[in-house]
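User: I'll paste a sequence; please echo it back and then give the predicted structure.

Assistant: Echoing your sequence first, then the prediction.
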Amino acid sequence: SAALEQGLQEREWFVTGNIMPELFGESFKFQDPDVKLEGVENYARGVNKLFDPSSRAELVDCSVNLEKPNTITVTWRLSGKVNLGPGVTIKPYVVYTDLVVDPASGLVVFQEDRFSLPGWDLLLSAFLPFLQPFLSPPAPPVEELRKTFAETGSV
C-alpha cells in the first residue's frame, strides 16, 4: 500500500498513464461508469490519450478498505482537461478508486472508478458553461478535501 500511495503521488498515473507495471497483475481489468477494458498497458495508453498533460490526480486518501476484502480504496481529486476536440476543461471532481489485490500475488488485478458527479453534469458544465450555476459545484481544493477526510473519514 505504501509503494502504491507513493507511486500515485509522484506519477499521478490516474491522469498520466505513467503506471508502475510491477504493481499490476497480467489479468488486470478496469472499469468506470463509461469504460471497461483489459490489460494494464491498454489502461495506461487510454489514460494518456484521454487527459491533457495539465490534468491533475491529487491524492486525498489511500487506505485498505475494511468493508471490501483485498481492496485498497483511493480517494482523489481530478482536474484539468480532456482531449476531446480542441481540448475541454472539466470542473474538478472527486473520484473513488477501488483497487482489488490478488491475495496470492499481492498485485492489483481490478480497478473500478466511481465519480462524485454524474457524467451528464460533467459534460453539461464542460460544453455548456452558462449552465454551471444550475449544476453541482466543482470539488473544493485538495487541501480542503484532505482536511474533511481526516475529520470525517469521507468527502
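The mean pLDDT is 95. DSSP finds five helices and six strands in the chain.
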